[in-house]
Amino acid sequence: MIAVNTPASTPQTSKAAVVTGGLGALGAAVVNGFLGAGYRVAVIDRIPPDAPAAVALRTNPNVLVLAGVDLADASATQTAMQAAAARHGGVDVLINVAGAFRWQLMADGDLEIWDYLYAANLRSAAGACRAALPFLRRSPAGRIINIGAGAAAARSAAGMAAYTASKAGVHKLTESLADELKNHGITVNAVLPGTIAPTCPMPIERAG
């Protein structure tokens, strides 16, 4: 079970963050970081509402858990973002952690994996950004942080084509949105992590 807690001594701010994929290992670390900085946090994730991580997180009064949400579904994402903004009085920061990974060679691979990774990595991020924009525009300092991949910024290796192509799309989404929103007081950046050492057998997808 992933523990997400707010220390009793943590001062609360009026700022609100939304973390997609916040019930996975990486997402939980992000949630912990924002809670530690005093943010109120909404987590949007595809993991079922009765999953242990979702149940445990609901005990934190500073967190809204919106589980069972398909982030590739624009309508579901918009509904969840509206619920997050209503609960916490707006959205100041959006962190797109949700995503997935698959390794396959082209010769014996399945083209449906390309569609799956596009939806899980790129469409989910684009949909969350679009749903959050009306609220971020009202924030005095809106922020979007996308989780890309270091592998997508370098030469792609065998078996990595579908994954790195989808993550390269996240990089270009970030660049384009940054230019689109530069005069609206909203910054858009991407973090490009390398391989993240797991604490359990390597997962093939992150929550979201």
Structure description:
There is one protein chain. The protein has 208 residues and is of the alpha/beta class. It has a single domain (16-191), classed as 3-Layer(aba) Sandwich (Rossmann fold). It has helices at residues 25-36, 52-57, 74-88, 111-136, 161-181; strands spanning 16-20, 40-44, 63-66, 93-96, 143-147, 187-191. The protein has a 6-stranded parallel beta sheet with strand order 3-2-1-4-5-6, sandwiched between helices. Strand 2, helix 2 and strand 3 (63-66) form a beta-alpha-beta unit. The protein is globular, with a radius of gyration of 17 Å. The model is unreliable at 1-9 and 199-205 (pLDDT under 50).
Topology, number of strands: 6
Shape: globular
Strand order of the largest sheet: 3-2-1-4-5-6
Could you give the distance between the termini? Answer: 17 Å
Chain-averaged pLDDT? 89
Brief overview:
The chain has helices at 25-36, 52-57, 74-88, 111-136, 161-181; strands at 16-20, 40-44, 63-66, 93-96, 143-147, 187-191. By secondary structure, it is an alpha/beta fold. The radius of gyration is 17 Å and the shape is globular.
Q: Which labels suit this protein?
A:
208 residues; alpha/beta; Rossmann fold; six-stranded parallel sheet; 5 helices; 6 strands; disordered N terminus
